[in-house]
């Protein structure tokens, strides 16, 4: 049985990225008690400057955007716990979240845990510096405009690598697809598509990355490649473990399945942001958060919890 004498709240949000913070603001404004568990690992925090976020025509750093969103949620009474949720248990229609600091009992949980990008084989410090300078980029939808006409290397292979290279080809004629770990895994049709598009493709491995004053260079097999930006197209790891631990269904890609109101297949459990299948964009995450928070409020009201 869950011990209701522990810290008990109406709603728990796991993840302090755009989805989690937007949902938290809605929940606070619904006069619901809410806690956000945030370990500071949101991918948004690593964005040097996003220029496609509505309302910021001059762009905004990801960390600054998160700071504003966190401050906004706090204004409405949302509490923050800088702790990792290690386990999630569902009993008697409630959830218990075990964290590194304490246990939280809650009626509703929103998972906004996001995903991890798979990185190229390079030193972590060098990777982070290159990311901050825009020499490594992970989202061509977000910032393809910034590399218009520039030299671009896509690290990847197979269908995913080809699609990303073709997408970036619409921004620049100087695109090279490099396999991360050896010879390309491309069939005849894929090679023809790349050739027709004017995209060079080189076998790997991609190694020995060097950050230069105005470029980034690395070895592709025995060749040196020097470009303005590198886009890793190596896939990602979806952080859906907490959901699956309580029985939530996943898609074939590993994302949590949700309905039109961001409800998972487990009653009382919701999901929003990059942990859900769809376009990995801040604006999309915020929209999903609004849907999820409103559904949480309405479902609690139906259960007689949200009345004042």
Q: What is the structure about, briefly put?
A:
By secondary structure, the chain is α/β, with parallel strands linked by helices. The protein has 8 helices and 16 strands. The chain has 2 domains: 7-116 and 236-302, FAD/NAD(P)-binding domain; 119-232, FAD/NAD(P)-binding domain.
Task: Give an account of the 3D structure.
This is Thioredoxin reductase. Pfam families: Pyr_redox_2. The chain is α/β, with parallel strands linked by helices. It has 2 domains: 7-116 and 236-302, FAD/NAD(P)-binding domain, CATH 3.50.50; 119-232, FAD/NAD(P)-binding domain, CATH 3.50.50.60. The protein has helices spanning 18-29, 62-75, 124-132, 140-143, 158-169, 188-197, 241-245, 282-302; strands at residues 7-14, 34-37, 79-81, 85-91, 94-99, 103-111, 115-117, 152-155, 175-178, 200-202, 206-211, 216-220, 223-227, 229-232, 236-238, 269-271. The strands form 4 sheets. Strands 1, 2, 3, 4, 5, 6 and 16 form a 7-stranded mixed β-sheet that branches. It has a 4-stranded parallel β-sheet with strand order 10-9-8-14, covered by helices on one side. The protein has a 3-stranded antiparallel β-sheet with strand order 11-12-13, with helices on one face. The longest helix has 21 residues, at 282-302.
